[in-house]
Amino acid sequence: SELARSLVISTMSVRHLIPKLSGNVIPSQIAQTKRILLDRVRLTCKAGRGGSGFKKMGGRGGRGGHIYFQANAVTTLRMIVDAYETRRVIAPPGRPSSRRQLVGESGENIIIDVPLGISLTTDDYQPLCELNEEGDRFLACKGGIGGDSSNNWIGQKGESHMIALMMKLISDCALIGYPNSGKTSLLESLTYIHNVTTSDYPFSTQRPQLGTLCYDDGRRITLADMPSIMERATDLSPNHTGLGCKFIRHAERTKLFVIVVDIDGFLLTDWPRRNAFQCLILLLNELEKYSKKFIKTDNLLEKPFILVINKMDSILSSLQYEELLTNINNGLNSYTDLPSDSLPTCLPTFRRILPVSTVTGQGLDELKEALRDDLDLYIEDGGEYFQTNPPLDFQIQSRMLRSSISLGSGN
After folding, report:
1. Cα–Cα distance between 214 and 95 in angstroms, integer?
2. Which terminus of the chain has a lower count of CB atoms within 10 Å, N or C?
């Protein structure tokens, strides 16, 4: 009946919205399940094959369908996953030549709508393009040419590629650091976000978290807390630890890097203990290795940096801070007890070095103003403010910071 038919159509149209139950999962638990961050989708794309030619009458086969990616403001990666459940996109072939139609019709082109700001890469991370504006279009796979005298009247295969769609967060500042360095607590202290995940164990941040820093005059700055980075994370070895290497790409479009270092360093079972300076060096090395391996045309260490020394409420923080400043002033000549392949080729120029504590609130107001001032300079000079506004000399800066520590810390 007509009613039954409409019910079947309705069921088919919403089938992708119905969650698949497995194991002991019950419907009441589905609403409580957190959705993972979907920031990368791989699609196998195959353009259409050209149609066969008609040798007897000199007819030419139709071209196979192309596959395009086109930026659309309302599209999400989730919508793409729902539309292509098998992750395969195959364009129609061209029509063969015939007596009635010597020139075969071309196969229909497939246009895949993608979110604005999407990055398209090959499966081995070779960049293809970025679609940032509404209507931007990229030809991913060309359809095969139809059969004619040049190819013995046999239609040619269309191109076939594995395309990775990668979303990158756009934030003003990115918080980057080792596990348990206090990035998430810092995000919570600076912004109005209150549903962040904080724990006293490493790797509690499993995906980027965004917060908005609001000022009294209405100015807003977006902060992104990145998952923790461990040494050798970008080597992508089978036993690599941490999630940061997977999410560093979300910091590529960031205007300002905020490196967060625990003044007490870092210690994890089966890993050697790292002091604060060693953590800093290893973090910078991972950013440089990521740049060489995945970006290739740019170096993340050329971006503006602010160094935040966290947990200054600890007992020996003043002495440790003095030692850290000395090592930074000496640069890579400082003794770090690290292998040579763990050292970056150079150190970035830190705009500021700020000691803070999320427990006592020390330095948080100064950090808020520093973020605003440095971002304003970045905007005014079109992202090139290193040249027009050089940072303070390290020796002068160190003396200023030492005096602020001795006055503001009870240690």
Report:
1. 60
2. N
Residues 6+ apart with CB under 8 A from 120: 69, 114, 127, 128, 129, 130, 131, 138, 140, 163, 164, 165, 166
Q: Do β-strands 127-131 and 118-122 pair in parallel, antiparallel, or remain unpaired? A: antiparallel
Q: How many Å apart are CA 189 and CA 161, to the nearest integer?
A: 46
Helix (H) or strand (E) holding 115: none
Q: Which pLDDT does position 30 carry in this prediction?
A: 31
Of 70, 155, 57, the residue nearest 105 (C-alpha)? 155
Between helix 364-380 and helix 183-190 the angle, nearest 10°, is 80
Which strands form 350-355's sheet, in the order they lie side by side?
Answer: 209-214, 220-225, 173-177, 256-262, 305-310, 350-355
What percent of the chain lies above the pLDDT cut of 70? 72
Three-state SS sequence of 248-309:
HHHHCCCCEEEEEEECCCECCCCCCCECHHHHHHHHHHHHHHHHHHHHCCCCHHHCCEEEEE
Given a cut of 60, is residue 229 above it in pLDDT?
yes
Six token digits for residue 326: 């000395």
Which letter, b or e, does each residue of 67-105 get, where b requires 16 or more Cβ atoms within 10 Å of its Cβ? bbbebbeebebeebeeeeeeeebbbbbbbbbeeeeebbb
Q: How far apart are CA 385 and CA 303, in angstroms?
A: 10
**Contacts for 75 with CB less than 8 Å, ≥ 6 apart:** 113, 114, 115
Given a contact cutoff of 8 angstroms between Cβ atoms, the answer to whether 54 and 97 are in contact is: yes
**What pLDDT, in 10s, does the model give residues 363-401?**
999 999 999 999 888 766 555 444 334 444 333 343 334
Indicate whether 113 pLDDT > 80: yes
280's CB contacts (< 8 A; 6+ apart) are 259, 261, 307, 324, 328
Alpha helices in 17-116 (DSSP H): 27-30, 77-83
DSSP 168: -
